[in-house]
């Protein structure tokens, strides 16, 4: 297939694009800057210069492709400006534009969500499954729209990513952010007793998952990009603290913004997540190290 990939210079694409190319697909990667274009070209993909806000350009690229993987989200802009909802709105507009170009084609359209959407949507205290759906909310609305394209002749699927997608390719995700905060404060923090759990997945396993979703996922599928089902936050803090040679500390919800920065609103969520249905549906099996082993390997602290 000729595959159009947004977010082609980002973390997930750094594994997904080589996986697609190795499987014999052609990749056209969206790049908004010279540096992004160089990264995409180095991965071996053809570069398409453009912006996520160029909806006509997205529609054109999608209509000319055999399938689309939508990875782009304005994380940097949301953090820089504090206007997260502007990034959410841009993601929805891009999803709608790509979907409109693909209607009636039966082409695959793989989008991206997050497992934390389940916890913020009230699914907690048990492992969330692919059958669990949330009625609405930031980013959830775009995921729901994409899944609904199955009724309009699009082979749509959404990969819900674990909050910690980790590997030596991960330079700006939640794991580096937690490490930076622990280094800054001299301790790795957790909220309350830290018994809440976060799932995790290795970047290279996620690259395989996106390729399989493109090739095999039935229309309307929700998939879980999860390797570790749920790591207690105390274990996350202890692993980071050991790598830095510092201690851990419990903080209250009121103290969390100072200790955990922009992650304070998420760090206390209980988000264990199952991948059983995804593995059954696609034959996907994570094979790379889990989060604790990967962090203990030391590359995050180099």
Largest sheet: 7 strands, parallel
Percent helix, as a range, is 40-55%
Structural class: alpha/beta
What coarse outline follows from CA principal-axis ratios?
Answer: globular
> What is the number of helices?
13
Order of helices and strands: EHEHEHEHHEHHEEHEEHEEHEHHH
Strand order of the largest sheet: 3-2-1-4-5-6-10
Question: Quick one: how many beta strands?
Answer: 12
Structure description:
The chain is of the alpha/beta class and 302 residues long. It contains 13 helices and twelve strands. It has helices at residues 13-22, 34-43, 55-64, 75-81, 84-102, 116-120, 140-148, 174-185, 203-216, 233-244, 256-260, 276-282, 291-296; strands spanning 2-6, 26-31, 46-49, 67-70, 108-114, 155-161, 164-166, 187-191, 197-202, 221-225, 228-232, 247-251. The strands form three sheets. Strands 3-2-1-4-5-6-10 form a seven-stranded parallel β-sheet, with helices on both faces. Strands 7-9-11 form a three-stranded mixed β-sheet. Helix 5 (84-102) runs parallel beside helix 7. The longest helix has 19 residues, at 84-102. The protein is globular.
Can you give keywords for this protein?
302 residues, 3-stranded mixed sheet, 13 helices, alpha/beta, 42% helix
Q: Which secondary structure elements does this structure contain, and how are they paired or packed?
A:
Elements: E1 2-6, H1 13-22, E2 26-31, H2 34-43, E3 46-49, H3 55-64, E4 67-70, H4 75-81, H5 84-102, E5 108-114, H6 116-120, H7 140-148, E6 155-161, E7 164-166, H8 174-185, E8 187-191, E9 197-202, H9 203-216, E10 221-225, E11 228-232, H10 233-244, E12 247-251, H11 256-260, H12 276-282, H13 291-296
